[in-house]
Amino acid sequence: MIKLADGKAREIQHMTATSFWGVDGRPISAAQFLELLFGALPEFFKDEDELRAIWRTPANAPQTA
Questions:
Q1: What does the alpha-carbon distance between residue 23 and residue 47 come to, in Å, rounded to a whole number?
Q2: In sequence order, which residues have a C-beta less than 8 Å from that of residue 33 and are 6 or more positions away?
Q3: CA triplet 12, 19, 65: central angle to 5 degrees?
Q4: What is the pLDDT of residue 21?
Q5: pLDDT single digits (tens) 14-55
Q6: b/e sequence 25-56, b meaning 16+ C-beta within 10 Å
Q7: 20-22-28-32 Cα dihedral, nearest 10 degrees
Q8: C-alpha distance across the termini of the chain, in Å
Q9: 56-to-12, 42, 45, 64 alpha-carbon distances in Å
């Protein structure tokens, strides 16, 4: 419940939904998303050491188009 300056109170309702989309713009399942993600990860870094170096200094991460 949020009390406004004029003394009125309002309750905010919210809803969250997570969705995953394929490269073709179609919705995909979470499992399909993870399969695509783990298949693409080697394009971004070659091993754990390189990933840790990128996380240490995000400005040094390769830039994507």
A1: 25
A2: 20
A3: 110
A4: 94
A5: 889 999 999 999 999 988 988 888 887 777 788 888 888 888
A6: eeebeeeebeeeeeeeeeeebeeeeeeeeeee
A7: -100
A8: 44
A9: 38, 19, 14, 18
pTM for this one? 0.45
Quick check: 65 pLDDT over 70? no
Determine contact, residues 40/32, Cβ cutoff 8 Å. Answer: no
pLDDT at 64 over 90: no
SS (H, E, C) the chain: CEECCCCCEECCCCCCCCCEECCCCCEECHHHHHHHHHHHHHHCCCCHHHHHHHHHCHHHCCCCC
